[in-house]
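Sequence and structure are kept together here, with a separate record for every protein. An example record follows, reproduced without changes.
>
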Amino acid sequence: MIKSFYPPMRTLMGPGPSDVHPRVLAAMARPTIGHLDPAFVGMMDEIKQLLQYALRTDNPLTMPVSAPGSAGMEACFVNLVEPGDKIIVCQNGVFGGRMKENVERFGGIALMVEDAWGDAVSVEKVRAVMEQHDDIKALAFVHAETSTGVRSDAQALCRLARDYGCLTIVDAVTSLGGIELEVDAWGIDALYSGTQKCLSAPPGISPVTFSERALDKVSKRNTRIPSWFLDKTLVMGYWGGGQKRAYHHTAPVNALYGLHEALVMLQEEGIENAWKRHETHHEALRNGLEAMGLQMSVAADIRLPQLNSVAIPEGIDDAKARGQMLENYGLEIGAGLGALAGKVWRVGLMGTSCTRRHVMLCLDALENTLLEQGAAIHAGRAAAAAAAVYATQNK
C-alpha cells in the first residue's frame, strides 16, 4: 500500500526552487475557499498591487498566471506574436532558445542574435539586426539567464527597442526580487517571471505584466489568439478590478495564499533592501569561493548575485560531488546545462535561501566535499573570507 509522502529536509541552493519560508508554507495551509469568494477576490486585488510594487509598474494588466514560468512565457508570446511577425530573439543560454521555440510555434519569424554562453546579450548586435529590417514587431531577451548566471542590460535593450518602434518581451524569471528591475522606467512591454526563485514561494505560478502598448497590439491583432487559457482578453474578466468577476478558470487558491504571503514579506523588507541583501551575500560567497581557490565563470560586471556560476575544478566528478553534498549536508546545488554541463556548478542565493547561514553551509559543504575528492584547494580560508565581508556590512 502506498503511504503518505514526507519529503526529506533539504537546503535548496540550486537554480530554483529556493527554500520556502515557514510563513509562506503556513499561509498555504489555511482553509481553502472558493475562487469567486468575495474574500478571495479581495486577496486577488492585493496580489496585483503587491506584484505592481515588486515589478515597479502601474500596468493594470499585472497578474499571476495559474501555471509555472514557462506558461508565463507562452502567455506573452501567444498574445503578442502573429503569423509572419518578425521577432528578434536574443540567445545567450538555454532560455533564449525557448523564446525562439515560442515565436516559431505561433507562426512568427525569429531573427536570432546569438552570444556565447557566459556573455551578456550584445546591444550592438541587436542594433545591427534592427537596422537591417524596418518591420520588427518585438525584441525578446532574458534579463537574468538562469543557465549561465549572466545579467544582460535590460534598460539599454528596452531603450533600443523604443528607438526602433518595437515592443519588448522580457524573461525575468530569475531577476524578480533579486536584482534591480524597473518595468515602467525601462519601458518593458511584456514580462514574465516565476514564484520559485527570489520570491521564495513554491513553483507553479507565473507573474506577468503587459504595458498599454502591448495591450494595444493585442487589441489590433489580425488573427485569433491561438490559446484559450492564456488569452489575456479573456482572463482579465477574472483578474480585472472590482468585486464582479467572470469565471475563467479555478485559480490555485492555496498556492495564491503562498504567493500573497511571499509578496507581503518582500514589501515588509523593501524591494531595494532585497536587492541589496542578494548583493551582500553574493559578495560573501564569492570571497569564500575565491579564497578556497575556486573561480567564478562569469565576468564581474555581468554576474548575477542570485545565481552564481562556479567553475568546477579539474579532475572533480561533478555528479559525485553534488551527490555527496546532498547526502552528507542535505544541500542541493545545480549542475551546468547545455554547453556548460560538467563545467560549472550553479549556486543559488535566492530569496529565503539568501542568508549568511546558507552561504556558510555552502562553503563548508563544498570545501569538505572537494577535499574528499582530492582537489587542490586552500583549506580553512573560505569561512574567514566570507566573514570579512559580513564584518564590513555589519551582518
Q: What stands out?
A: The first strand starts at residue 11 and ends at 12.
